Amino acid sequence: MPIPGTPSRAELVDHLVQTRIAGDVATPRENNLSHYRKLANGDRNYWLGLELGDRWTDEQDVLAVMAERCGVSDDPEYRYGQDTIDPDLTVDALERAAGRLRKAADGEQRVLFATGHPGGLLDVHRATAAALRAAGCEIVVIPDGLQTDEGYVFQFADVAVLEHGATLWHTHSGEPMRAILTGLESEGRPLPDLVVADHGWAGFAGQLGLDSIGYADCNDPALFLAEAEGTLQVTIPLDDHVKSPRFYDPMTAYLLSAAGLA
User: Fold this and answer.
1) pLDDT score, position 42
2) Total-model pTM
3) What's the pLDDT tens digit per position in 170-229?
4) Most buried of 3, 23, 245, 248 (most Cβ within 10 A)?
5) What are phi and psi for residue 162, nearest 5 degrees?
6) One of this protein's Pfam families, by short name (predicted)?
7) pLDDT (tens digit, 9 = 90+) per residue, 19-68?
8) Burial (Cβ within 10 Å: 0-12, 13-18, ≥19) of residue 90
9) How far apart, in Å, are the Cα atoms of 58 and each of 28, 30, 118, 207, 208?
10) Max intra-chain CA distance, the chain
11) CA atoms of 91 and 16, how far apart (whole Å)
């Protein structure tokens, strides 16, 4: 069960491992390597809204970054079985993200939240948005009537999501974020100072030059490559859909406490 209150770093590391948000995660090694290969081969479905050009055409280079920044095995001969996310890297990234959230709070900046993984991360984003609003930030309200080929772009509890067939939709696409930012410009409204998101929502925002924090699983390498290149400010490694959304609560509490927003 989730631990109460705000955990210490050691308590959070233990919690991440126990709930499989990090440590031995559910995503198998063969799935990770398949995604790294597809990204390297130019499959834009795995670029998550980014423009990677020809900079990451060697899957071994992708694997090296994922080992360094996410904590998967760096052994190219290890091709099947369990893979890992280093929980200390997760907490390190949370602390870097906390610094950028503190900057947003101090400057009362405009912040946009979005998720392509509403089944896991919606409440993480909602709680972060509420804390920033309480600190004086403007949480960006997205324009009405937005849609992509996949569905409609709506906002629930301050978090932009994709809706399809009366269901919140899991998407890796950057097109919903494109629709939001284009809509804001069409209305003559300023773009966000900061985007906190995941998947293509975070990738497209970073590609456009906006400060962007992204959560990413070990089979979604694009955001880690973007952080390595400086396109994203922070990429936080974690399993983005574990057994219960409540398992993320201690992580969120730690993030907000580290940012001085608890």
Assistant:
1) 97
2) 0.96
3) 999 999 999 999 999 999 999 999 999 999 999 999 999 999 999 999 999 999 999 999
4) 248
5) -100, 130
6) Phosphatase
7) 999 999 999 999 999 999 999 999 999 999 999 999 999 999 999 999 99
8) buried
9) 21, 17, 32, 21, 25
10) 53
11) 9
Tokens standing for residue 201: 């929502």
The two three-digit tokens of residue 1, written as one number: 């069960």
At residue 169, the pLDDT reads 86
What's the chain look like in SS3?
CCCCCCCCHHHHHHHHHHCCCCEEEEEEHHHHHHHHHHHHCCCHHHCCCCCCCCCCCCHHHHHHHHHHHCCCCCCCCCCCCEEEECHHHHHHHHHHHHHHHHHHHHCCCEEEEECCCHHHHHHHHHHHHHHHHHCCCEECCCCCCEECCCCEEEEECCEEEEEECCEEECCCCCHHHHHHHHHHHHCCCCCCCEEEEEHHHHHHHHHCCCEEEEEECCCCCHHHHHHHHCCCCEEEECCCCCCCHHHHHHHHHHHHHHCCCC
Q: How crowded is residue 5: how many other Cβ atoms within 10 Å of its Cβ?
A: 10
Q: Look at the chain and count its residues.
A: 262
Dig out the tokens for 129 from the structure: 């948005």
